[in-house]
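User: Please fill in residues for this 151-position structure.
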């Protein structure tokens, strides 16, 4: 009689299922984290490319602040990002206030800086679920700056 009870205690037929149940939340968080960080990296690369395009347009002879802002907004829109959420700063030789203008603009540098908020979907929600963070938790500002010398 005692042998039957010991054999039943040593039965491990549900062990794999129990391990799967315990590890599946960790694996899901890892998978969604990899996906979200990949999407954030893609958005950062897009913001960097848009800043380069804006700086290229700003270095042309007939460049204007409005033209550069329009080019940046069009590239953001074409990339699937909302241009209204982007903060675009134009500077001449590092001084904010717009592009270099006038006859002495040749040889001076135009700066185009873009900051874009990226909202984490799963990871931001998960942090709220466990009670971490404040009002803007799960939002990261992705930024890029490109400097080009005017023609």
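Assistant: Residues filled in for all 151 positions:
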């Amino acid at each position: 009689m005692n042998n039957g009870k010991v054999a039943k205690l040593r039965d491990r037929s549900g062990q794999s299922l129990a391990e799967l149940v315990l590890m599946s939340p960790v694996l899901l968080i890892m998978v969604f984290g990899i996906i979200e960080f990949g999407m954030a990296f893609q958005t950062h690369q897009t913001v960097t490319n848009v800043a380069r395009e804006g700086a290229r347009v700003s270095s042309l002879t007939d460049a204007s602040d409005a033209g550069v802002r329009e080019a940046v907004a069009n590239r953001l829109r074409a990339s699937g990002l909302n241009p209204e959420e982007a903060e675009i700063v134009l500077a001449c030789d590092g001084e904010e206030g717009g592009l270099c203008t006038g006859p002495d603009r040749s040889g001076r540098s135009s700066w185009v800086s873009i900051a874009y908020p990226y909202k984490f979907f799963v990871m931001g929600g998960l942090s709220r679920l466990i009670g971490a963070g404040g009002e803007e938790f799960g939002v990261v500002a992705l930024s890029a700056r490109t400097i080009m010398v005017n023609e």
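For context: The chain is about 50% helix and 20% strand.
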